[in-house]
# Entry
Amino acid sequence: MDIAILGCGAMGHIIKEMAENDGINVAAMIEPMNGESLADIEGNVDAVVDFSNPANLQMMIDFAGKGSRGGKPAAFIIATTGYTDEQTARIAELSKTAPVVHTSNFSFGVNIVEEVLRKITPVLRDNFDMEIVEMHHNRKLDAPSGTALMLANAMDPDGEYNKVLGRSGSCKRDKKDIGISAIRGGNAAGTHTVIYAGEDEIIEITHRANSRKIFATGAIRAVSFAVKQENGLFDMHDVLND
# Structure
């Protein structure tokens, strides 16, 4: 299997090392910040793994179909966060012609937490205030993190609550608020804590990433899943349940 990695930061190099250890050939490492493009790839690849920047979405759309093998479109594993609603809609459109795995977090553990939140929130939300606190390294570009928003959506799938991003000044809490606070510093790979605060008890559910390898492991598993699909939009729950 041949893949291309879009984005040559820390995550890109970790994925390259782990993919090659699994017998996957990394045919290209593309860094748009250096003027490189997926269009520069010679030959075909089975999948593109994207840990880059939302600005590179058009590059992937342009590449769709050109990197195919045997008439089958290349798969796209999209881990970049910070997309606008319009860009997210374009990813859904891309999935009509190519297999796309799009998620804010490829960690197995985070996706299990998401499933837990879907189950327990309906039981707790009437008697507990709900908050999310997330911490990432000082180079992360977007806040709050895509994972924090993913968890908030799991807690509130019908959009009944206000997502309050940080607080300052006079800001009395509303019962229909989910507060999201972002911390940036050091080289933290990512910590997310969901808090259910009641009158006399507090429940905290925390996922802590001790290494970026957990995201690479999930992305590589997503590649193996996606290349078996014709087209469609998938997430890590589809991958884990395959």
About this structure: The mean pLDDT is 93. Residues 2-106+213-240 form a domain with the Rossmann fold fold (CATH 3.40.50.720). DSSP finds seven helices and eleven strands in the chain. The chain has two domains: 2-106+213-240, 108-208.
